[in-house]
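Entry 12.
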Amino acid sequence: MEISVLASGSNGNCCLVEDKNTSILIDAGKSGREIEFRMDKLGKNMENVDAILLTHSHHDHTAGAGVLSRRYNVPVYITSKVYSEVRFKLGDIDRKTFFLDKSFKIKNLLVKPIATSHNVPSCGFVINKKFGLFTDTGHATVQMKNSISKLKAVFIESNHDIDMLINGPYPAFLKQWILSSQGHLSNIDASSLIQSKGKNLSLALLGHLSGNNNTIEVASKTFESLVKRKISFSVCSREEVSGKFEV
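Predicted 3D structure (tokens):
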């Protein structure tokens, strides 16, 4: 299985997951044109995508989903609660409804939605029992912890450095929300989770970095200081395609 990170951050999120004959996008939080451009940079084509899966309703995860669904006749997999929040933005799409913790198949890929904790209904996904993607969650849910312990690779939110956030320019209410159980995982949260639960992991991708309260260097330093086992890791860029990873 190959993982391609097209975008990761509050300015847009999109991850391509493929095996030999199945291809899915998890989130489509850039414009349709930008996602097409980034796919092309990786030698990929939207015409080969079999489905778009949405984690939640925020614009940085859904912006291009409706356009791409119509342009390429690709179904959008979404929960009923999330659809109720974004149906007008998505427009006319081929909608497929899924349910939390209930697995479903897209051709050769087995997908299990996993509950996360955000200020809107949200989830992550485990693919083929090997790879998990978890972003936009204020804490690691029980379902996340149980899943990560069995995975070979994980893409996980490492949103902010706590000191940078506390001492930064955000208003107090926004800082409090980010730090809450319905906000975002810090570098320490993400790396500690991988250290405590990721005993079978061989690859960790850190993503959804804040543009104001984090840097690639700070996230990397935190990971290296807290994760004591040998795990390949990469911190994904907010601005560029972060490349392809084999699982």
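Annotation: The chain has a mean pLDDT of 97. The longest strand covers residues 109-115.
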